[in-house]
Amino acid sequence: MAIAAIVGVYVSWRAGRVDRLHARVEAARGALDAALVRRSSVALELASSGLLDPATSLLLAQAGHDARAAARLGSARLGSARLGSARLGSARLDSGQHGHGQHGHGQADQELPRELAESDLSRALRAAFAQPDFRTSLNGQGGAAELLAELEAAAHQVFLARRFYNDAVAVTLSARRRRLVRLLRLAGNAALPEFFEIDDSLVASGGEGDGADMPRLTG
Amino acid sequence: MKIGIVCPYTWDVPGGVQQHIRDLAEALIDFGHDVSVISPADDDSPLPAYVVPAGRAVPVPYNGSVARLAFGFLSASRVRRWVKDGGFDVLHVHEPAVPSLSLLACWVAAGPIVATVHTAIPRSRVMHAANTALQPAFEKISGRIAVSEAARTTLVEHFGGDAVVIPNGVAVHKYGKADPLPGWPGPGGAIGFLGRMEEPRKGLPVLLRAFETLGAGRPGLRLLIAGPGDADEALARVPPRLRDRVVMLGQVSEADKIRAYHSVDVFCAPNTGGESFGLVLAEAMAAGAPIVASDLDAFRRVLRGGRAGELFATGDAADLARAAGRLLDDQERRASLSAAASSAVRAYDWSVVARDVVSVYQAVVPGRVAVAP
C-alpha cells in the first residue's frame, strides 16, 4: 500500500511538471507572438512615415502587411499550441519576373504561412538597412532616430523571445517523450508544441557594417 | 523624341518585362527616336549601347517570390542624375507599382511620365498603407498603358482613371527563320511545349495525358519540352514506355527558344487559364509553327477564331489528342495554318505596337506636333 502511495505521488509529480511546462510554453508563445506583432507594426510605421524613399517604403509596407496577415490567419485557425502554419520552405518561384510579368497570378494571391512571412520581413528589413547611406540619409529627419531605435528594439525582442520559446518547447517535448508520460497520457489531450523557426537575424550574413548595418546581437 | 525608359528589374536576367523593354527600345530606335534605358545591371554583364546601368539590384522577397529590385536613396539619386542629364521629352516607366527604379523615377522626376503596367496588382491595401510616399509619385503619371485587360482592371480599381491596353509585341523578324535543333523534328514527328512545367495553368499535364494516346498510336513521335521546372517530376507523369520519347530541354537561351519553335511539327499551347494574351502563342506564330491551342478567349482572338491555329476544348486531353493527331497527319493543313499564323501575327509585331506607344507619348507631351514615327 505504501508502494502504491509512493507511485501515486511520483505520477502526480510528473503530471504536474508536464502541466507547468505547458504553461511555460504558453507564456513564451504569447511573448513571441507579441514581439512579432510589435516588429511588424513598427516596420509599417516606418514604411508610412515618409522618411524613406517610396520604393523602400513599399517594400517594408508589403512585408509588414504580409506578416500581420499571416499572424491573423495563424491565430484564427489554430489552437494555442502553435503560432502559425509550420510549413516551411515551400517552393518559391524565383520568377525572374517572367511569370508575374505575363499575367500576375501565382503566389501573390495566397496567404503566406507565418514563418515564411516573418522571415520575409526580416529579409526586407535587412535589405533596407543594407542600402548605402541608409542611416546618413535619415539623419536629422524628424522622428527618424526614435523610429529606428524602436525597430531595432523590436527586432531584438523577436530574437530573444523566439529563443526562449524554442527552449520551452524543447524541454516540454523531452518531458512528454518519457515513457510514463506517454503510457499514462499525463499530458491529456494537449497537442505537442512545435518549434518556431524563422530567419530573424538582423545583419546581412557575412557583411561587416560601416555603421550602416543594424547592431549585431551577441549571444 | 528623346525618350527615357525605366526598367525595374536586372537587365540581363530573363524576364517578360526586360524583353518587352528591349524590343520596344529597339523598335523606337528604328523609328529614329533617341532612346535611353536605365536599368539595374550586374557589374560584369555587357549592355547594349542604349542602356545605362543603375547599380546592382538586390534579391528580396516580394509578392510571394524573390525579385531583384533597386531601391534606396542611392538608386534614387542615380535615377535623378540620369533624368537630369537626359533632357527627355517623355519618361516611360515600367511596373511603377513595384518597389524599384520605376517608382523612384516617378518620385524624382518632373515632366510627362507614361507608365506601363505589366502585372495585375494584387494588393491594394498595401498601397494605402504606404500612401504617404506612393501617392505623390503615382499622381505624376500622365498616361497609363496596360498590357492586358487584367492589368488594366486592377489599375482602374486601385488608382481610378483609366489606362489604354496595348498588348505585348513580338519581334517577328527575330522568329521568322531559324534552323531546327539538331535531330528535330525527326522522322516520327514532334510536338512542342514551352513554359513553366510546374505551373498547372500552363497546361503541361493536359499535354502529357494527350501524349499517352498520341505516343501509343504513333511510333517515333516525340515531345519536346522547354522551360524551367523539375524535369524528373514531369517525366514521372509519363508512362515508362513513352519516357524516352519525351525530351526536356530545361530553360533555354533566346536563340535556342527560337530554334525550338522551328523544331516541331506541331506546337501546343494547352494553357488552362490565366492567359491575357499568350506571348508564347504569338512567338510560335511568328516562327510559323502549326499550332494547337486551348480554346481560351485570348487564344481564340489571337488565332483568328481558329483560322491561324487549331483550337481544342480547354483541359480536355482527349480533344487535344484528336486535334494534334489530325494535324500530324495532314501536311497541307499544317502548311496553310503556318502561313495564316505568320500573316496574323504581323498585327502584333513590335513595329505596330511601338507606333501605338508613340501615340501615347505624343498625347502626354504638351504642344507636340505629331511626328511621323
What is this structure, in a nutshell?
Chain A contains 7 helices and no strands.
Which two protein chains have the largest interface (Cβ within 8 Å of the partner's Cβ), and how many residues from each?
Answer: A-B, 52 and 63 residues
How many angstroms separate the termini of chain B? 9 Å
**Fraction of residues in β-strands of chain B:** 15-25%
User: What is the CATH level 1 assignment of the largest domain in chain B?
Assistant: Alpha Beta
pLDDT averaged over residues of chain A: 76
The biggest sheet of chain A amounts to: none
Please, how many helices of chain B? 15
**Overall pLDDT of chain B:** 88
Strands of the biggest beta sheet of chain B: in what spatial order?
3-2-1-6-7-8-9
Helix proportion of residues of chain A, in percent? 55-70%
Shape of chain A: elongated
**Structural class of the helix and strand makeup of chain A?**
mainly alpha
Q: What is the CATH topology classification name of the largest domain in chain B?
A: Rossmann fold
Largest sheet of chain B: 7 strands, parallel
Number of domains of chain B: 2
Share of residues in strands of chain A: under 5%
Task: Draw up the topology in text.
The complex is a heterodimer of chains A (219) and B (373).
Chain A: H1 2-47, H2 54-77, H3 98-103, H4 114-130, H5 134-138, H6 144-177, H7 179-183
Helix pairs in contact in A: 1-2, 1-6, 2-4
Chain B: E1 2-6, H1 16-31, E2 34-39, E3 51-53, E4 58-62, E5 65-69, H2 73-86, E6 90-94, H3 101-108, E7 113-117, H4 124-129, H5 131-139, E8 141-146, H6 149-159, E9 164-165, H7 172-175, E10 190-194, H8 204-217, E11 222-226, H9 231-236, E12 246-250, H10 254-261, E13 266-269, H11 279-286, E14 291-294, H12 297-302, E15 310-312, H13 317-329, H14 331-344, H15 350-364
Parallel strand pairs in B: 1-2, 1-6, 2-3, 6-7, 7-8, 8-9, 10-11, 10-13, 11-12, 13-14, 14-15
Antiparallel strand pairs in B: 4-5
Helix pairs in contact in B: 1-15, 2-3, 3-5, 8-13
Please tag this protein with its features.
heterodimer; A: 219 residues; mainly alpha; 7 helices; disordered C terminus; B: alpha/beta; Rossmann fold; 2 domains; seven-stranded parallel beta sheet; six-stranded parallel beta sheet; 15 helices; 15 strands
